Amino acid sequence: MDLSELLFATTNEGKLREASAVGAARGVVFFGLDRVSSELGEPPPCIAEGEPTYEANAVRKAQGYAQWSGRLTVADDTGLEVDCSGGLPGVFTARFGLARFKDLLGSLRSCDAAFVCCVAYAEPSGRTVSVMTRVPGVVTVEPNLCSLNGSLPYSSLFIPSGQSRPLAELVASGEYLSHRGMALRKLFTALGM
Questions:
Q1: Full domain range(s) for residue 48
Q2: Domain tally, the chain
Q3: What span, in angstroms and rounded, lies between the C-alpha atoms of 170 and 161?
Q4: For 100-134, what is the HEC assignment?
Q5: Residue 91 maps to which CATH number?
Q6: According to the model, what pLDDT value does residue 152 have?
Q7: What is the DSSP track for 5-23?
Q8: What CA–CA distance (Å, rounded) separates 84 from 73?
Q9: What is the CA 154 to chain-centroid distance, rounded?
Q10: Angstrom distance (rounded) from CA 112 to CA 142
């Protein structure tokens, strides 16, 4: 299999940029769903993340988009697991919402947490390979969280272990590889790249 070009199953430009930066070091070019949709002349199917685990969600998306596109495909599922909330929001992170997140933590302003990411690779034939990463750290919540932009990424509230700044800042500065970037590197190794 020629792994030099891979579909990254996303329309999120930030995710695609990150995947492309990690892939470039291995000679891999990532492209997104928008390119395939344009080539095929049809919108991509909506493959919901309704499974109970990161791996099941990532594999489901990778297989579904590989079948639809006929291309080697990579997909991810990511979540923030907060210790003092029993691991929530976890696989529900993307749909959880900041107000609900603040309610979940109650009066706490910080708590141990981890970003978890599963990245899955799928071939149209059905073969899949998946890997997981877990980045420990602490989540910090400001009292004015609910007044902030509703699209604020959780990575702005998460400080990885051994760091002093939020994950979003570290990744934007190029000083740190995110949980997704770490998972992609691990996937390349699993694929023998």
A1: 5-190
A2: 1
A3: 12
A4: HHHHHHCCCCEEEEEEEEEEEEECCCCCEEEEEEE
A5: 3.90.950.10
A6: 59
A7: EEEE----HHHHHHHHHHH
A8: 35
A9: 12
A10: 15
**131 backbone dihedrals φ, ψ, rounded to 5°:** -140, 155
CA dist., res. 105 & res. 88, Å (int): 10
Place of tokens 């919108």: 43
pLDDT for 54 equals: 97
The contacts of residue 64 (CB under 8 Å, 6+ apart) are: 45, 47
Tokens of 159: 């400080």
* C-beta separation of 62 from 75 below 8 A: yes
Q: Which helix (H) or strand (E) holds 57?
A: helix 54-69
Per-residue pLDDT of the chain (193 residues; tens, 9 = 90+): 788 999 999 998 988 999 999 999 899 999 999 999 999 999 999 998 889 999 999 999 999 999 999 999 999 999 999 999 899 999 998 888 777 887 888 788 889 999 999 999 999 999 999 999 999 999 987 755 554 444 557 888 899 999 999 998 998 888 788 999 999 999 999 999 8
| Burial tier of 153 (Cβ tally within 10 Å: 0-12, 13-18, 19+) | middle
CB neighbourhood size of 165 (10 A): 13
Token pair of 56 as six digits: 């099941």
Residue tagged active-site, from 77, 83, 103, 112: 77
Task: For residue 34, indicate whether it is catalytic.
Answer: no
